[in-house]
Design goal:
6-stranded mixed β-sheet; 190 residues; 14 strands; 4 helices; 2 domains; alpha+beta; disordered N terminus; single chain
Length: 190
């Protein structure tokens, strides 16, 4: 009987930790770009990746860095196929135009619980990466993007190939569409 009380106290203490974290107010850093699978959001002040997602930050624009306030949300019943916690956007504390000109790399394939797929599509002669426009820097890069889209049937029929191939694009913020697009410098398939 004495151990039953001790066991109950231990179990309750684990439950309290979860509850005490729920609703915790935090500050997060949102980087100037996003990829197909990551929002590029970090804890402050240490700038470590949050390991989950930020919900409700609909006003985000590419090409800007943000310091935002958010609350930690821990659902009472964890999602079966999702994260055990995530952050809910509260407000923007600071917004700064990203002025860097150095290219950065984004992955052009998605990997998740669903089959691996190519993260771009062509609509009305425009390459899209999620909701962001990918503008080829020149005709050679346009051909690289078209060649990538030609791999879609192989991705759908050969899951081993889809899992092992690496596909990246080197990009900068598109000066003609800074908050909604990337200028693609090159595509690498390996």
């Amino acid at each position: 009987m004495r151990y039953l009380t001790l066991l109950l106290l231990v179990l309750l203490s684990f439950g309290c930790k979860k509850d005490s974290e729920n609703g915790k107010v935090v500050e997060l850093f949102v980087d100037h770009y996003a990829t197909s699978g990551r929002q590029m959001v970090y804890n402050l002040p240490e700038k470590t990746a949050i390991g989950t997602y930020l919900e409700g930050f609909d006003e985000r624009e590419l090409g800007y860095t943000y310091k935002v306030r958010a609350t930690l949300y821990v659902p009472e019943t964890p999602l079966m196929d999702g994260p055990s916690m995530w952050y809910k956007f509260v407000k923007v504390i600071d917004k700064q135009l990203y002025t860097g000109t150095e290219p950065f790399v984004i992955p052009l394939k998605t990997s998740s619980i669903f089959p691996t797929s190519i993260a771009i599509r062509l609509e009305n002669q425009t390459f899209l990466y999620g909701s962001y426009v990918l503008r080829p820097e020149n005709d050679a890069v346009k051909k690289q993007l078209e060649d990538l889209l030609a791999l879609v049937p192989r991705f759908q029929s050969d899951s081993q190939y889809a899992a092992k191939v690496l596909i990246d694009a080197t990009v900068v913020h598109d000066p003609n569409n800074r908050s909604n697009g990337y200028l693609v410098k090159s595509v690498k398939i390996q």
